[in-house]
């Protein structure tokens, strides 16, 4: 899974991008963003971690741990608990950081641009 993700990042960064402006009829070459740091680790038992940073300030880090939980029928089931974060510069020039985790309860993300559910009134 990590190898595929890293391969896609590498492939995407190697492909020249053309910026099409149909209103003007011009096509201009856009230099791909370079990855300046990339690290990964995969353990045979299942745990993994990876992180990367690009020259335009995008960062991402993630790790996964194997956990045994009980399913709906009270049978043991192995899941991977994922925790991570990514950061980028928003349109206003501020650094936006999103923290997330995914486990047997689903995917959960928190950050300034992630809507929160208001508490229900009774």
UniProtKB/TrEMBL annotation:
Annotated region described as Disordered, given as residue ranges: 36-59
GO MF terms held by the record: structural constituent of chitin-based larval cuticle
UniProt keyword terms in alphabetical order: Cuticle, Signal
GO CC annotation, single: chitin-based extracellular matrix
InterPro entries in the record: CHIT_BIND_RR_consensus (IPR031311), Cuticle_Struct_Prot (IPR050468), Insect_cuticle (IPR000618)
Pfam families, per the entry: Chitin_bind_4 (PF00379)
Top-level taxonomic group: Eukaryota
PANTHER family tied to this protein: CUTICLE PROTEIN, CUTICULAR PROTEIN 47EB-RELATED
Protein name per the record: Larval cuticle protein 1
């Amino acid at each position: 899974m990590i190898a595929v993700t890293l391969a896609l990042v590498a492939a995407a960064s190697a492909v020249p991008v053309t910026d099409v402006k149909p209103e003007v009829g011009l096509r201009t070459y856009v230099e791909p963003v370079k990855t300046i740091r990339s690290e990964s680790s995969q353990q045979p038992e299942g745990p993994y971690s990876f992180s990367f940073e690009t020259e335009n300030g995008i960062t991402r880090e993630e790790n996964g741990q194997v956990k045994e939980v009980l399913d709906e029928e009270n049978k043991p089931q192995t899941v991977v608990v994922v925790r991570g974060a990514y950061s980028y510069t928003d349109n206003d020039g501020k650094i936006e950081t999103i923290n997330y985790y995914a486990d047997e309860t689903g995917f959960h993300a928190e950050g300034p641009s992630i809507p929160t559910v208001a508490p229900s009134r009774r």
